[in-house]
Amino acid sequence: MNNKKKKIKRKMFFASSYEIRAIENFLEEEAEKGWMFERCSGMFYVFEECEPVKLKFQVDYFDKATIFDTNPESNTLDYIEYCSESGWQHVFSSGKMQIFYSVQDNPVPIQTDEKMKLKLVCKATILANWINWILLPLIWGLFNVREMVDELLNPNYYFAYSRSLTELSEVGFVVFWLAFTLLSIVNMARFGIFCFRNKRRLKNGLGIQYYSSKNIKKYGVFHQIYLISLLVLLAALFTKDHVSLYLMIEFIVTILMIFLISKMTYSKWANRKANIVIMLVFPIVVANALIFAFMGSISRGDAKLISGDAIYVYSTDDIDLTLEDLGVDKPDEFLYEETVHDKAKSFLGMREVYSDYYNTEDNSYGYSIEIFSSKYKSIMDTYNQLVLEDEYYTYTGLTATKNTWCSDQVLYGTGEDVSMYVVVQDGITFVIEGHLNQEQAAEVSSYYMNMASALTR
């Protein structure tokens, strides 16, 4: 008895569900090479090693099946039995799609009504792709991208503008959405051409004309080049900030989730009811878990304080110039001191933030400095304009001091609660905000200006 385990091969084939002639030809070619089709998920096809054999494959769509039927339900089983009586052996089910093969050279087609066949193919394609082609681009565009683009093109706050330019998580998401939407439009256009062209052909008494296998292969190469280029571009935009790291984790988790859903829904015990739960509930649970994790990452910190019913999570990063160094008196009662050092860099600019605050239950006392630089004059002009046109501050120009150069623009802004000290140089700006007087703010700017100057030497 031969117990040798048969080899399994996985292969990508970029064909949409309406391109059934190309799928049939692909499966027949693999069978002749000694690989028998077993199952598929999206563009991934699985084959088992066999003796080379010449078979005829047929892809058909059974309208009474649902998108949740990965294993045939009772009405689908009756349909499969009917097809088997005509010499068609069932291989695989996925929703409405049913794949058969026959050993006969010229078997009788399962579906002989071309108009009905076109109707079923178009209906099944729309049901299988409307989320990717329409819903996701629309939702992302309305609720995420529109706000991100508006924030990038019409920024309101200097710190939000510098963060978006250096962390690039928003830019990366906009690029991803544009690429995803463009690919969806191209796919919808191809499908639309297929449907309208064949409706006209059937009216003229002609048969359905499918895209050729050569055309499908070329389109598959386009898909691969497009996706690889997108990944390279997103990798170039990637920065080591916590939002970008979260998006990378979200992408990896999504891929794993798709893999797990595919494994569970195509298992032997899968049925319609179980698949509804898996396909609908599981993604919602994972999405909420990711959102919860992201919200936790925003309030990240390396220290924790419990005071009554409240829990405070805060950072204790090392910084060189503390409030104590500046001679700032501690409040009579404060819960904790938080020190932060953040740094982000991209091809558009560099942003570095240092801060030190004494925190009470109701207020914070301290300072923060943001150092932003860019080699692009238009970016620096926009950033400086956002700083100097802040509606909460009234600025007074200062003459250059020993801490600054004659060419520097130095301003001291007074607001309702805190002050702002700004030094504008060529290609770099220092913004100090907090509970500091003019002399303390000048000391902070001097220290970090010297540090920045030393780093660029």
From TrEMBL:
Coiled coil: none annotated. It comes from the Bacteria. The chain crosses the membrane at residues 120-143, 171-193, 219-238, 244-262, 274-295. Keywords: Membrane, Transmembrane, Transmembrane helix. InterPro entries: DUF2812. This is DUF2812 domain-containing protein. It comes from Anaerobium acetethylicum. The lineage of its organism: Bacteria, Bacillati, Bacillota, Clostridia, Lachnospirales.
